């Protein structure tokens, strides 16, 4: 998604922060701090080695500012960071790779689902507030997708292709509370610094009616193994579909490029149902006049 947004803006995609290529003028394009498998909580993704947790990513963001400052000076760095577009995607793994990772997980014994959602959202608030304090003034915050409808969950939890009700319940509790928290945070800082992207609805559009978007299926992944191609990772041993553009999901968890382009278009031009309080095109128009 960030690559597709960069493409729309006519800019190069920001390089990974730890890339040795990220130096001099390339630093001024931005940086990608993301790390697969992490969550809002530090205990999310403990089964993965060498993930860069969000606390560490925020430290890297601070380091990044120092490096940019060394290039263009403190004042220009602040202007650059304040004017930057930031995309943050967190939350899904706190359910899939934490609360529901195994039956009777530590977090599911500690919290009922509604209480866990409240806790996770309150921790997310701290992350977003820290980003604001570090100078981020235009932050796109995506909600979780429909977690119970991805091929991985269909393979594990579905008898006849229906979405997992428990994971869908988690998404339907988390996403509205995320929007409310963003509203509260915007009121606190006195601006529309944070923009909520309703990625659950964006996904559900093509999951509930794949043919309307030119897909043959939204249940089977293009690349994977087992039922719905939903087991394991996409490897050389996987089943591979002949045309990925006909599939809404590329692998057991992630949308295909064509599906991602649909999502990116909604981020850019979506109605208030999808983008709150405004879409990215409106932001770009506003920022070009100030």
UniProtKB/TrEMBL annotation:
Keywords: Hydrolase, Lipid degradation, Lipid metabolism. Belongs to the 'GDSL' lipolytic enzyme family. GO terms for biological process: lipid catabolic process. SUPFAM superfamilies: SGNH hydrolase (SSF52266). It holds the Pfam family Lipase_GDSL. It comes from the Eukaryota. It comes from Raphanus sativus. One of its GO terms (molecular function) is hydrolase activity, acting on ester bonds. PANTHER family: (RAPE) HYPOTHETICAL PROTEIN, GDSL LIPASE/ACYLHYDROLASE FAMILY PROTEIN (AFU_ORTHOLOGUE AFUA_4G14700). This is GDSL esterase/lipase At5g33370.
């Amino acid at each position: 998604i960030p690559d597709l947004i960069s493409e729309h803006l006519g800019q190069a995609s920001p390089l990974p922060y730890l890339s040795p290529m990220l130096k001099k003028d390339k630093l001024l394009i931005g940086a990608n701090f993301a790390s697969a498998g992490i969550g809002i909580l530090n205990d999310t993704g403990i089964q993965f080695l060498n993930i860069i947790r969000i606390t560490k990513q925020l430290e890297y963001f601070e380091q990044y500012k120092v490096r940019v400052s060394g290039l263009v000076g403190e004042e220009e760095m602040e202007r650059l960071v304040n004017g930057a577009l930031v995309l943050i995607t967190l939350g899904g793994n706190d359910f899939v790779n934490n609360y529901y990772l195994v039956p009777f997980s530590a977090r599911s014994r500690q919290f009922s689902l509604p209480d866990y959602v409240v806790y996770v959202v309150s921790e997310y608030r701290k992350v977003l507030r820290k980003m604001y304090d570090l100078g981020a003034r235009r932050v796109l915050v995506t909600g979780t997708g429909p977690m119970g409808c991805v091929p991985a969950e269909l393979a594990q939890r579905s008898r006849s292709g229906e979405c997992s009700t428990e994971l869908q319940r988690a998404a339907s509790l988390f996403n509205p509370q995320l929007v409310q928290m963003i509203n509260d945070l915007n009121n606190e800082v006195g601006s529309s610094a944070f923009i909520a992207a309703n990625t659950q609805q964006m996904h559900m559009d093509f999951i509930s009616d794949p043919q309307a978007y030119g897909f043959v299926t939204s249940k089977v992944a293009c690349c994977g193994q087992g039922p719905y191609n939903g087991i394991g990772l996409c490897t050389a041993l996987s089943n591979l579909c002949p045309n990925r553009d006909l599939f809404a999901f590329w692998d057991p968890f992630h949308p295909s490029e064509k599906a991602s382009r649909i999502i990116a278009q909604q981020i850019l031009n979506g109605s208030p149902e999808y983008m709150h309080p405004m879409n990215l095109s409106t932001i770009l128009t506003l920022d070009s006049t100030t």
